[in-house]
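Figure caption, in words: inputs first, then the predicted bound structure.
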Amino acid sequence: MRTFIALAVIAPAGLAATALAASLLYLDGPPAGHTGGFGEESCATCHFDNPVNDGEGEVRVSGFPERYEPGETYTVTVEVRRPGIALGGFQAAVRFAEGEHAGRQAGSVRLTDERVTLLETDSVTYLQHTVEGASVEGDLARWSFEWTAPSKAGGKAVLHAAGNAGNGDDSVFGDYIYLAEVVSRVRR
Ligand code: HEC
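Bound structure (heme C present):
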């Protein structure tokens, strides 16, 4: 029986490896609500070794418009850079910045990148890296997704992104956490 179970688990090797990585490593998904926005905690709650936003690196958001057209879709990219980064991760969310919907999902997000996955809560859809998406190219890790702006002018939206420039040791130690906040106003 024991052998049977072991075989059943190992059989689809790739899948099993992914599942194993997902269950053993937070790599596959930090808990929801760790972007550092709206009073949330950030990755630094657990990855607390180094000061947040250390000057040698950064998390950079591009493609999130300064002014959005209601209903328009934008391709947004989040990058974490730091010399020597070995594994990277992020979590991001787009929420209304003010008014009665403050802190709730602003518009919608769509996956276009295998390196990104979604984590839904009642009021917010978080974007974050997958296990494969923790890989880096040179000194940066990069992820993209689509954001469709709210259809009715819902007011100012804010994207919070938390990034981890990891040292690749499969622990919370020695990593650098970066936080960013970018605002998008309605185009009038
Ligand atoms: C509740 C604690 C906790 C929080 C919060 C957390 N992590 Fe982690 N993370 C871990 C642990 C523990 C590991 C080590 C691997 C493991 O044991 O799962 C890890 C490992 C990682 C690694 C691999 C690091 C390396 O150098 O090997 C990345 C990348 C990562 N986390 C990204 C993030 C990001 C991005 C956030 C915030 C959005 C975050 N984590 C928030 C617990 C956490």
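The two ends are 67 Å apart (CA to CA).
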